[in-house]
Specification:
antiporter activity, single chain, ion transport, 407 residues, antiport, mainly alpha, Cation/H+ exchanger transmembrane domain-containing protein, transmembrane, Na+/H+ antiporter like fold
């Protein structure tokens, strides 16, 4: 177990550098590591139950690290200020991309619940994948660059909230007595009420308890202790959300949002960066471990069709409203920047997959993994070409979006 964890950690670091040179997101390499372990087990039985349990634990901690960083990198006050413009693009984009994803999955032949999982997963985006071309072009601080970040952050948050609703109603949808929409609505309303109460508690903590806590940490604790305390509290909040019937992802996102106003020395603490770099790859390695080799061939066709749906849903759903509120000539590049699906999309599929193959069949799991790999690998080059073909705003090295950009 120790040998595998140590070896996988070193391999993840090597592949991260290799992917950076090839201009691929590192998650591509991480998923391939997991798939390699899965295939190796068929030859040499290295993934016994104890080892698999250790990797599952590390994957869960990686999930918490990923979503905590998403929340930590968000700026709720800035999002509220930008909401009138960004919300038009965000709302239409979510509706169109989710609808296209759902009906594409139904057309492929998936049942209603797996199709809902695909639709919800395809509402999310991953701005971290499309971000390097914006940074290289010096356009991240421009009006369109800020709009991309705002819409992507709203996509992330709404994707996790939609996931919470989906996970809450899946037991009702799969009860075996047909779809009782009255029960679904009642369950959804109860879940929304609980989620609102949980969010209110997080707001109270962030508004009145977090500021004196972080001031005390900055004054009385040195690195890495202060960031470890923040991470420990975030883990407790994530676990509490899981115990209340939500998921670890919901709790970790809200925990990150609670500390999003913390001083920069908290955000940029090297202790957290090291912890994040160690844990986050294991979530994607876990995805590779869950891929069924026998289902990969069947996933090629479904993955290709869902890839088309993923691209068209975001491009159409984002470009049309962007023509109304975005700077002239920037609608297409903003829309293409929303195409990548990575951490949030796979978190949704992974969490729904815990309900069994009836909810997320191996073919759908493999198909969504293919969508993630393809959109993450191809989008940056397209965004780079589109940015090169249009004038961009000046760089903003110290602007308010830098924490979000760190994702």
């Amino acid at each position: 177990m120790v040998l595998l964890v140590g070896g996988v950690t070193l391999l993840a670091i090597l592949l991260r550098h290799l992917c950076a040179q090839l201009r691929f997101p590192a998650l591509v390499g991480y998923i391939l590591i997991g798939l390699g372990l899965r295939l190796s087990h068929d030859v040499i039985p290295i993934m016994d139950p104890a080892v698999r349990g250790a990797f599952d634990l590390l994957a869960a901690l990686g999930l918490v690290a990923l979503l905590f960083r998403v929340g930590l990198g968000s700026n709720p006050q800035r999002l509220l200020a930008k909401l009138p413009g960004a919300s038009v693009i965000w709302l239409i984009s979510v509706i169109v991309s989710g609808g296209v994803g759902y009906y594409a999955a139904r057309w492929i032949g998936f049942d209603m619940v797996p199709s809902l999982v695909a639709g919800v997963a395809l509402t999310a985006t991953s701005i971290g994948v499309a971000l390097p071309p914006w940074q290289a072009a010096g356009a991240l601080g421009s009006e369109q660059g800020s709009l991309v970040l705002d819409v992507a952050e709203l996509d992330d948050i709404s994707g996790v909230v939609l996931m919470a609703l989906l996970l809450g109603i899946i037991p009702t949808l799969t009860a075996g007595n047909g779809v009782a929409w009255g029960g679904v609505l009642t369950t959804g309303a109860g879940l929304l009420t609980s989620l609102a109460a949980f969010a209110a508690g997080c707001y109270i903590f962030a508004r009145w308890l977090e500021p004196p806590l972080t001031r005390a940490l900055v004054q009385h604790e040195r690195a890495p202790a202060r960031m470890l305390i923040v991470v420990a509290m975030g883990s407790l909040i994530a676990a509490l959300a899981g115990m209340l019937g939500f998921s670890l992802a919901i709790g970790a996102l809200f925990a990150g949002l609670m500390f999003s106003k913390a001083p920069r020395r908290i955000h940029r603490d090297r202790a957290y960066i090291v912890l994040y770099d160690f844990l986050s790859p294991f979530f994607f390695i876990g995805i590779g471990l869950k891929l069924e080799p026998a289902a990969l061939t069947g996933a090629l066709g479904a993955g290709g069709l869902l890839l088309v749906a993923a691209v068209l849903g975001k491009v159409i759903g984002t470009a049309l409203p962007a023509r109304l509120v975005a700077p002239r000539g920037s609608a297409l590049v903003i829309a293409v920047s929303m195409v990548p699906r990575a951490e949030i999309a796979m978190v949704i599929v992974d969490q729904a997959g815990r309900y069994g193959s009836e909810v997320v069949p191996p073919t759908l799991y493999g198909a969504m993994t293919m969508v993630t790999l393809a959109t993450c690998a191809l989008t940056p080059a397209v965004v780079e070409r589109l940015l090169a073909a249009q004038p961009t705003g000046p760089p903003d090295a110290n602007g308010p979006n830098q924490v979000s950009a760190g994702r």
